[in-house]
Design goal:
Its EC number is 1.1.1.1. One of its GO terms (molecular function) is zinc ion binding. It holds the Pfam family ADH_zinc_N. Its cofactor is Zn(2+). This protein has 357 residues and is of the alpha/beta class. The protein folds into two domains: 167 residues, Medium-chain alcohol dehydrogenases, catalytic domain (Quinone Oxidoreductase, Chain A, domain 1, Alpha-Beta Complex); 139 residues, Rossmann fold (3-Layer(aba) Sandwich), CATH 3.40.50. The chain contains eleven helices and 19 strands. The strands form four sheets. Strands 1, 4, 6, 7, 10, 11, 18 and 19 form an eight-stranded mixed beta sheet that branches. Strands 14-13-12-15-16-17 form a six-stranded parallel beta sheet, with helices on both faces. A three-stranded antiparallel beta sheet has the order 3-2-5, with no helix packed on it. The chain is globular and about 60 Å long. The mean pLDDT is 93.
């Protein structure tokens, strides 16, 4: 391991000590990077709805325990393993991002096809390995993101998961410039970024969410129409009417955290359109009538996190000033309060936690 300046033995972290427990803000040992890993001193970390699922354990995916959550960490490389020494690898002092996909085997069929998010043996930040709700975090150098020197770390944090995820979903939808996309959950952390990526990609946006604060934000970010599902008497009809042809959206991006929107999307996507499921409400199911799905040639698919190249592209959009992640800042010790607001649906945009030095 080659370190930079002095690295402490202990650090502050938000720890889930056992299933069903409350988070504990405590000191734990600073990890040491393996041969192909980097140690990142986290300065800022975003808070994603996935982190809430990780804390509650409501996904059919085994968690490590005790667990440090978080997977949108932006910071500085302070140590690295001996194999991280090539010219294009990380150097001490580089800005780096730790993402949901912390590591992959890079040898299976999926990894060999640049589908490393589909690796059968992944390492997932804040779920199967400790994540970014701590001062120092380990990541595989091959999977970490290089952050341009020109961009601020706090604003970059949400791009590392939310930004990359929605950018990948928009690519998977097949929607082309000039076509319309309906974004469900457009006022949330992922949605606020999806609106901007969609605009930057030349798409026309129908935003679906609730509340005046989210309406104002979506319209400011580039949505041509906003459907408030809490006030609408007929969401399907309103979405169709908001699309340029009145035939429905060419693509639907589902970022909702409840099941109903997933059942509704095929009703307002146009024929030959695509419904892309990204949000992961616990214990939910996708259902669609077989007849209309077949005769209207509707494409229903899932989209997971992006691969390494998707990450590079998503960060490039951001570095060029095309994406400005709406976020509010809080302290790492305030994470439990942020989770409470998230469960209540009271967060417009995203929270980014400042990690103490």
């Amino acid at each position: 391991m080659s370190p930079s300046t002095s690295i402490p033995d202990l650090q502050w972290a938000q720890v889930l000590e056992k299933p069903g427990a409350q988070l504990v803000y405590k000191q734990i040992p600073v990890p040491k990077p393996g041969p192909d890993e980097i140690l990142v001193k986290i300065r800022y970390t975003g808070v994603c709805h996935t982190d809430l699922h990780a804390m509650k354990g409501d996904w059919p995916l085994e968690r490590k325990m005790p667990l440090v959550g978080g997977h949108e960490g932006a910071g500085i490389v302070v140590a690295k393993g001996e194999l991280v020494n090539k010219e294009n690898d990380f150097q001490i002092g580089d800005k780096a991002g730790i993402k949901w996909l912390n590591g992959a085997c890079l040898a299976c069929e999926m990894c060999m096809q640049s589908d490393e998010p589909l690796c059968p043996n992944p390492q997932l930040s804040g779920y199967t390995v400790d994540g970014t709700f701590q001062q120092y975090t380990i990541g595989k150098a091959a999977m970490a993101s290089k952050i341009p020197d020109s961009v601020a770390l706090d604003a970059t944090a949400p791009i590392l998961c939310a930004g990359i995820t929605v950018y990948k979903g928009l690519k998977e939808s097949g929607a082309r410039p000039g076509q319309s996309v309906a974004i469900v959950g457009a006022g949330g952390g992922l949605g606020s970024l999806a609106v901007q990526y969609a605009k930057a990609m030349g798409l026309r946006i129908v935003a679906i969410d609730s509340g005046d604060e989210k309406k104002d934000m979506c319209e400011q970010l580039g949505a041509e129409a906003f459907i408030d599902f809490s006030k609408s008497k007929d969401v399907v009809a309103d979405v169709k009417a908001a699309t340029p042809s009145g035939m429905g959206a060419h693509a639907v991006i589902l970022l909702a955290v409840a099941e109903k929107p997933f059942q509704q999307a095929t009703e307002y996507v146009r024929s030959h359109g695509s419904v892309v499921a990204i949000g992961l409400p616990g214990n939910a199911f996708l259902k669609a009538p077989v007849f209309s799905t077949v005769v209207r040639m509707i494409n229903i698919k899932g989209s997971y996190v992006g691969n390494r190249q998707d990450g590079v592209e998503a960060l490039n959009f951001f570095a060029r000033g095309l994406i400005k992640a709406p976020f509010k800042t809080a302290a790492l010790k305030d994470l439990p309060k942020i989770f409470e607001l998230m469960e209540q649906g009271k967060i417009a945009g995203r929270y980014v936690l400042e990690v103490p030095e």
